[in-house]
């Protein structure tokens, strides 16, 4: 459809955000199969877990897909090991999506492999640094975004400044994009692609806890706020979440005791109050007190739907027609929808 989509090997330049605890193989594969960018959240995963996840993806879809890593959560050596674990496991090119600026060692290994690279940034200064890694695209994250925030500018202002400073690199937008119409406006201004998170939390394949999905359905942008309270495990970075009694109180107002348990790869871990971890379908306890990351894009969440439907609706909105206006939509029986116009 455009050069960015061509480089990533996808049909439409919508990329699902890698989201720790939410974006596993089921979600990433479903999005990839629908022709958009499905992305596996690898977060703090160890190399052996990474290799296993990548192999599962390769078995689930023949479409290209992405892998998401977060440099600031790993020391440089461990980040390079994560990258190598991906590269050793893949049998065809994937694309890497870094949250924040990666190390040169990591991007050099990726460039040598022939895989593509996207880097998410929060400011024009970071965009300039990101360009030095020669990525296929740089993702601009505005403060309307759900999850941890890289910068301090709303998307529109960041995009306007970044378009003037792009130096020819393709730009993607993230944060508060609630549907294809919103992306269409950005696209018309010169943005090549977009990254959506919250919209994909609210899908059947997302691993988010059912109560979290329900709260997305019941909430609007005004129910989100930027806070720093969910800092256990990821201190020092503000995040946009759904309001709850922890965000309403002063930081540390409640004791940091365990409020639940979560299962990760078959191991049961206690969840402390103020943990940065999201409540997943493997979590039990005081779900309402946990970190439910949510962007202004929640305005586009009107139902919990299959990921394929989320993609198809988004593309139809982008093209200026509503799903109901398309006879037979969204049924796509061949699994190989093409968005060529
Ligand atoms: C539940 C949730 C978890 C997230 N986890 C990650 C993550 O692990 N890695 C990452 O790069 N970004 C993560 N993000 C941020 C997204 O990359 C993206 O910036 C954001 O979702 C865009 O805003 P939107 O939610 O309004 O679409 C997360 C976002 C959400 C909502």
Automatic annotation (TrEMBL):
Q: Which SUPFAM superfamilies match?
A: Inosine monophosphate dehydrogenase (IMPDH)
Query: Is Oxidoreductase set as a keyword in this record?
Result: yes
One MF annotation (Gene Ontology) recorded for this entry: nitronate monooxygenase activity
Which InterPro entries does the UniProt record give? Aldolase_TIM, NMO
Q: Which Gene3D superfamilies match?
A: Aldolase class I (3.20.20.70)
Q: Which domain of life is it from?
A: Bacteria
One Pfam match, given by its short name, reads NMO
Q: Which UniProt keywords apply?
A: Flavoprotein, FMN, Oxidoreductase
This chain's protein is named: Putative enoyl-[acyl-carrier-protein] reductase II
Record organism: Candidatus Accumulibacter appositus
């Amino acid at each position: 459809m455009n050069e960015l989509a061509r480089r990533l090997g996808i049909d439409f330049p919508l990329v699902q955000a890698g989201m720790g605890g939410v974006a596993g193989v089921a979600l990433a594969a479903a999005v990839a199969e629908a022709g958009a960018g499905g992305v596996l959240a690898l977060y703090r995963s160890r190399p052996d877990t990474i290799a296993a996840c990548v192999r599962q993806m390769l078995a689930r879809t023949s479409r290209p897909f992405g892998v998401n890593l977060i440099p600031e959560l790993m020391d440089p050596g461990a980040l390079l090991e994560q990258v190598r674990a991906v590269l050793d496991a893949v049998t065809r090119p994937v694309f890497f999506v870094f949250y924040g600026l990666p190390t040169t060692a990591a991007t050099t290994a990726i460039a040598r492999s022939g895989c593509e690279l996207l880097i998410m940034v929060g400011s024009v200064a970071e965009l300039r640094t990101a360009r030095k890694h020669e990525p296929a695209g740089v993702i601009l994250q505005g403060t309307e975004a759900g999850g941890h925030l890289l910068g301090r500018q709303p998307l529109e202002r960041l995009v306007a400044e970044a378009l003037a400073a792009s130096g020819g690199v393709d730009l993607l937008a993230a944060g508060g994009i609630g549907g294809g119409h919103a992306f269409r406006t950005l696209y018309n201004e010169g943005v090549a692609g977009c990254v959506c998170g919250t919209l994909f939390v609210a899908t059947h394949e997302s691993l988010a806890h059912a109560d979290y999905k329900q709260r997305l359905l019941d909430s609007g942008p005004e129910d989100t706020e930027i806070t720093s309270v969910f800092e256990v495990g990821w201190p020092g970075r503000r995040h946009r979440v759904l309001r709850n009694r922890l965000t309403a109180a002063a930081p540390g107002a409640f004791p940091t005791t365990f409020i639940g348990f979560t299962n990760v790869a078959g191991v049961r871990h206690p969840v402390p109050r103020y943990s940065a971890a999201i409540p997943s379908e493997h979590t039990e306890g005081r779900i309402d007190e946990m970190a439910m990351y949510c962007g202004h894009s929640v305005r586009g969440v009107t139902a919990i739907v299959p990921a394929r439907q989320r993609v198809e609706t988004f593309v139809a909105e982008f093209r200026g027609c509503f799903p109901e206006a398309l006879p037979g939509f969204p049924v796509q029986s061949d699994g190989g929808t093409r968005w060529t116009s």
